[in-house]
Specification:
The chain is mostly helical. It has a domain at 19-69. The protein is 47% helix and 10% strand. The protein has a two-stranded antiparallel sheet with strand order 1-2. The longest helix is centred in the middle third of the chain and has 24 residues, at 55-78.
């Protein structure tokens, strides 16, 4: 067996993986200096790429959330809240506020 210091080898390999080199952002095309595995110049481009990859799924979740909230507000209106007339203020309870 040879006397190999594995921690030294591991440290050397780790530093190679983190080497900084010129890169081009896959979203905006801007040049930046980053690790060899970096794809994006910053968080904004990283988030934009995520949105692009998952656009339909995220939009579907937003639509479902909107429909749930819309249904909840319709049911609260059906529970006896009076519809608000134009220019009328309401209290936190949903009841009209009388202006004197």
């Amino acid at each position: 067996m040879s006397d190999v210091n594995w921690s030294e080898v591991t440290r050397a390999l780790r530093s190679l993986r983190r080497m900084q080199e010129p890169r081009v952002c896959q979203v905006c095309g801007k040049e930046f200096v980053g690790a060899s595995y970096s794809k994006y110049c910053g968080k904004a481009c990283q988030q934009a790429a995520y949105w692009d990859r998952h656009r339909e799924e995220l939009n579907q979740k937003r639509r479902e959330k909107y429909q749930r909230q819309k249904g909840a507000s319709a049911s609260s209106a059906a529970e006896g809240r009076q519809p608000r007339q134009e220019g009328q203020q309401t209290a936190p309870t949903g009841q009209p506020v009388e202006n004197h």
